[in-house]
What does this fold into?
Amino acid sequence: MAAMSLDALVAEWLRLDQNPATREEVELLVQQANTEELERRMRTRIEFGTAGLRARMAAGWANMNDLIVIQASQGLCQYVRRTVDSAQSRGIVIGHDHRYNSERWAKLTASVFVQAGFKVYLHRGLVHTPLVPFTVQALQAACGVMITASHNPKNDNGYKVYWENAVQIIGPHDKGISASIAENLEPKSWLNEQLDSSPLCVDRTEEMKDAYFANLANLNLTRSLNENTNLKFVNTSMHGVSHAFVSRAFKLFGFAPYISVAEQKEPDPEFPSVAFPNPEEKGALNLAIKTADTQGATYVLSQDPDSDRFCAAERTSANDWHIFTGDQLGTLFAAQALKQYKAAGKPVDKLAMVASTVSSKMIEAMAAKEGFKFVECLTGFKFIGNTALTLVNEGYEVPFGYEEAIGFMFGSRIRDKDGVSATVSFAELAVALENDGKTVFSYLQELYQKYGFFQTRNSYFVCRDPPTIDAIFKRIRNYETNDGRSYPREIAGLSITSIVDLTTGYDSTNPPSFKPSLPLSSGHMIQFRAAGNGTKIVLTTRTSGTEPKIKYYLEATGQDLDTVQDVLKRVVEELANTWMEADKHHLGRP
It folds into this structure.
């Protein structure tokens, strides 16, 4: 598109778009001679990657809209037809959340596949994201699509693709689908008003929900305790779809109904009480904690809007709450999975767990002490899920995997993150610990004592200018000399002991090739390890595939808590002021 004139890009859009609202947006910009906004919307086409599509909802090649969804669906359809055996008869699973345009885009996607002769399992009504991969696996479908932008702001939406193995797509399928989209840009159909009456469009929504909950029941181990606990739980759905699913799961597990955060209970695409509907964001749990204070509850539970992520908090004193990090929850769930596996009398050397490379190394320490296999992979459940499937094929059982961004995978049927299973697993853990006179937070301290003290400090810088991001990472790679491998040698007084650059393909610990064992990242991603004065750190910096952020993941381990906290503080300061030059580049911070 870079070679086309702006007039040509606009003319092509108006030729193809059949949605009056988005056509009017473009026509108005043309009338206003708003070249800057037209360039922003038209010059660069939204890129289809391993995260599928996710962007602001608006007219133009760079955004999410009817035309982009149809073109993506046509490309996906033709690629699946060529690549997957018996694709048309096996069909596609499609679901959607409550965001603006989600239902319409689910039906547009279904219309494209029906027009091409595919069987379509179109979930009716709002579903949580995990139901789509579950249905792909249960029905042995050829692929799946979920229309959602997860925890993004209200003006965004997305198009998430699952492969026939019920895991989010990875390469080379992302590039194959992207190329197929480019070959199928002319819309062959628009919205099929008779879609629901088509014999190819099948409704098995309730059946799949029942099957999902029947599978979820396998995680329910202490129902008698759940039925008799005095613990109170507050739950927030963050204006998303999870209430219907989590309340059913609570009943399934034998819990009394939780206390809902009234202002956030029902699906609302406006997300009126939160600017960023992500439980990880600072202040996102304020309403839930306020409700818990009023109701005398001990724990706060939360899912993100499409209910594939989970967060929790515990009242640690009359006035204090501890919000668990994703890494702390991952450690707790891993210990729970290990305990259950050993209790079943299974050989520990056949147990495996998976985490992303930016997640805590505490499970790695746990695995070394307990004798199970731990594998790390690139960030994202597309990698975690596929790594789990590979381990299963090698003869391991993989009951748990996670990433620090509050995503947790349980059991063998869903190789993706699932906020509903995480919610009831946490609640069941809390009840079991209460029966032993403990809390989740006190149990976490026991795990630190047993496996070592690990503390994380994860955050991000906001940068909306890709060339600036490139310049920042170029400088880090040329810190001493201009040879692309002159990285910093120390940070906060600690000597850097290893560097793994998954963008350029460099691993300082793997001579003579210096090639990393992990696959390369599509964006910038560098991991540093450093040590000194009895403290070790792991610092990973990477760009986000879905947000204008430079993220960093920092973990320190040591014997002295005060020293560890001081090191974390100094590393963050040096990262911001010296490595990233945050003030010079006007980087935003949360």
The chain has four domains: 48-212, 213-317, 326-452, 455-579. The longest helix spans residues 561-579. The mean pLDDT is 95.
